[in-house]
Design a protein that fits this description.
One of its GO terms (biological process) is translation. By secondary structure, the chain is mainly alpha-helical. The chain has three helices and four strands, in the order H-H-H-E-E-E-E.
Length: about 100
């Protein structure tokens, strides 16, 4: 039965900079002992003929192939600019946005 001592818990608490009371040290030693025992049981169940896996089912890529293609031209992108005062919000081949935070141009 894997066990962890109260002194080992105190050492781990010091490393993690956690201040534990005497009662907490006893409680955590008991709880960590249960966790270590459970992990040991899982290790015993694992058969030698079963390879380690990261996922129980085989994974396949469901996405399409990444094929490069041409993007939008500047004019095509700017065609989607919002209309302000009846005109597209475009200036110097860029989107025009309102000033913020009192910045000056």
């Amino acid at each position: 039965m894997p066990a962890i001592t109260r002194e080992e818990v105190a050492h781990l608490a010091r490393l993690a900079r956690i201040d534990l009371t005497d009662d907490e040290l006893d409680l955590h030693a008991t709880q960590l002992g249960v966790i270590l025992e459970s992990v040991a049981q899982v290790g015993e169940v694992a058969a030698q003929d079963i390879p380690p896996t990261s996922h129980p089912l085989p994974l396949t890529n469901v996405f399409r192939q990444d094929v490069p293609r041409l993007g939008l031209t500047a004019q095509e992108a700017l065609a989607g600019a919002p209309v302000v005062d009846g005109e597209p919000a475009v200036e110097d081949n860029r989107f025009r946005v309102p000033k913020i935070l009192g910045e000056e141009a």
